[in-house]
Amino acid sequence: MKSKSGDNMDENGNSGLERIEDGSVVSNIHTSKWRVFTDSGRDYFFQGKLEPAERLFGSAIQEAKEGFGEKDPHVASACNNLAELYRVKKEFDKAEPLYLEAVSILEDFYGPEDVRVGATLHNLGQLYLVQRKLEEARACYERALKLKGRVLGYNHPDYAETMYHLGTVLHMQGKDTDAEALILDSLKILEEGGQGESMTYIRRLRYLSQIYIRSNRLAEAEKLQRKLLHMMELSKGWNSMEAITAAEALALTLRLSGQLEEALELFEKCLNAQKKLLPEGHIQIGGNFLHIAKTFMLQASQMRSTDKSEALSKLEKAKNYLENSARIAKDVLLKLKNQKIKAQKHEKSSVTLRNYEHAALVILLQSLESLAALEMSKNEIQEPKEENLHAAEDSLLQCVTAYKEFGYGTQLQDSFEVKSEYLSCLKHLSALLANKETTLNSKASPISLPELKEEIRRTEIDLRSQKTG
Questions:
Q1: In DSSP terms, which residues pair with 14 in a beta bridge?
Q2: Where, in residue numbers, are the TPR repeats (predicted)?
């Protein structure tokens, strides 16, 4: 069953909710209510209306127990549905006992080797995975994989799905060789089953390319990303968001491997397509401005010792793009700040807005920090100018201000990515201020070096806690 809310789905685009497939001859007022509550709860769930869905799923459990019996599979199905809702709401402590109860009921009723046990174990594995409880997730997926393979067959798409998820866990545990083998096998099963062009296949191929990038296997990542881009161009056309996303990913890999000219061409091609598809000032356009600027800065770095004039010209181009990306990101954040009260009334919309807000803040922080780096690069290429140092300091101070204005007191404050960008900005500002103390004719900074060092210390503690938590 396809969900209308992306947050309610797994990597295949499916929810873990269970349909009513009831061959039971039991029929009474409680079983009738169970059916109504389950159907209505699923409808609300897929609309992103989680509060009424939660009430209905809770009632469905009670009606199933009274109508079918405490240890009936209908109760397990109802427990699974409420557990899936709690997983989506990130109320993990409530979800886990419901999954465990469902597994226990199914094992007692059908036996421990039944495929329905495997399906619920897969869902429990997803719960552990999002909590980064990797050993627990691995155990669930390994057992589910054995059950699905034995009952459904080793070429079944459900078997391939659990295989893929087990591969993601192994990757997160640093077992990349085993992870790669499992993901490749899951891709092969999809190909042989005629799903080699499906979105599930594309998502898994994209994830494998990310594994290659993290392992610095850039040539292999590039090969997969060229394949993905070709698939998107054929199925969606170049002027589609799917093709643009694939092209941007390839361009980023090309930039990592030093193929700057081709990367720049791709980024600019993406930008032209985005301007046709998206409204002016869209955050994705701001993100592409940032990509282009960073590519120009890398080109400037390469030619600084051979052609200073051209290097400075590249930096000026980069500066224009960075100013535009910062402007767009800040405008987006200000608009979203004004919309927050409205968004809170619509759960589904608020999830989308939070993701949009997160992207905008990351882009703003990176743009401002890059502007500071750009000014410092100018001083390294040409005769140092104090105005460039002041401009760098001003950009970094804006970075601090932006984090406090748009991050403090919001869910963005807990984002590891946002906080990491903020810490990077703090460290660069600290180095700049420390250097200023030895420089004459420097204007006073609105933040002292000791205050800055204390903020760095606190932020590092927060990040370490998040990483190990």
A1: 2
A2: 118-151
